[in-house]
Amino acid sequence: MIGLLPFLAPVYAVIIAVVAYFGIRVLVGRRKRQIKKDVGEGICAVCGSRIIQNKCPNCDETKPV
Length: 65
Ligand SMILES: [Zn+2]
Known about the structure:
Shape: rod-shaped
Strand content: under 5%
Number of strands: 0
Bound molecules: zinc ion
C-alpha cells in the first residue's frame, strides 16, 4: 500500500481538481440562472430602473439593446 501512495497521490489530486472544477461550474451556472430568473425582466443592469416589455425607460432611448 505504501509503495502505491506516490502513484495514487497525483490521481487523487486530479480527481479533486476535476470535482472542484465541475462543482464550481455547476454552482456558477445555477447562480447565473437564478439571477436571470430573479432579475430577468425586472431591473436594468445599467441604471437599475424597472424593465418594461424588455426595455429600460431610461436607457432605451439613448442605447437600444
Ligand atoms: Zn437602464
